[in-house]
Amino acid sequence: MVSTGTAANVLSIAALTPPWGSVLCHSESHLLNDECTAPEFYTSGARFVGIGGADAKMDPAQLQKLVAQKIGDVHSCQPSVISLSQVTEVGSVYSLEEIRAITDVAKVAGLPVHMDGARFANALLALGCTPAEMTWKAGIDILSFGATKNGVMTGEAIVVFKSSFESKGIDSNKVAQELAYRRKRGGHLLSKMRVVSSQMMAYLSNDEWRRNATHANAMMALLQEGLKTVPGVKINTPAQANMLFCTLPLDMMRHLQAEGFGFYTGRWEEGVIRLVTSFQTPKAGVEAFIDSARRFSLLY
Ligand SMILES: *Cc1c(COP(=O)(O)O)cnc(C)c1O
């Protein structure tokens, strides 16, 4: 257990790359854009390389090209880890086949694969598969198992998949052992770890985590269906889980803000907003949002 998703990501990756390694991830990834050089700090300066691909999913062909480049060339960093985000940063979800297309490239190159599962439960419910099918059975070696965004106060787990690692000839016990020291060194071994662990136990009991994600995803489906019918709203990436990026006329955006709705703006092109539903989003709130947008579009 660690207390943030950033720690889960960077500790996982630091345990798998030397400082001269390169970590291949999507150019939109949280690692590259939202972790304030923690990745470089925790890995003692490894290079994080952005890979392109539609809907913030890595393109396996581009990945293949980079994985094979300059191997053994002492002048170049050496590909050492591949990291993908499930749900992605734009709200899309890799299908099991798409995950496998990435992990197949990794397998041939002998590289471990990390999954940033900050929204793991939302992706799982969207695919309707088992956790095993979305991780080790699909070639994932190590997982940042997010829980904070789906209901716990603070707490994320790092999960090391023994059989996956061993199929690549990597000793998973060594990885786990190293993680223990790295977690302490990084200041994420809490003296009252039970405060964090008890949240995770509650989260995983009685299907709480599935219930929370089911609700969040259902609210997003409702929101997306509603927004599709509002003139002027453009859906940028169809939401598959609980996050949606869309573009609104600026006046509509200001109108919604003035009515008290909260969402992120300003980090992207003008008019682009990010909408996220959660375990606690009320249905009436979603309906009010759609109504408010529609009222605006009818008036102007
Ligand atoms: C939120 C998030 C994280 C973790 O963020 P913290 O704020 O460090 O907990 C990691 N990856 C993705 C894709 C996220 O959305």
UniProtKB/TrEMBL annotation:
Keywords attached to this entry: Lyase, Pyridoxal phosphate
Domain of life: Bacteria
SUPFAM superfamilies referenced in this protein's UniProt entry, alphabetically: PLP-dependent transferases
Name used for this protein in its record: Beta-eliminating lyase-related protein
Organism: Marinomonas rhodophyticola
GO molecular function, one term: lyase activity
Subunit structure: Homotetramer.
Family: Belongs to the threonine aldolase family.
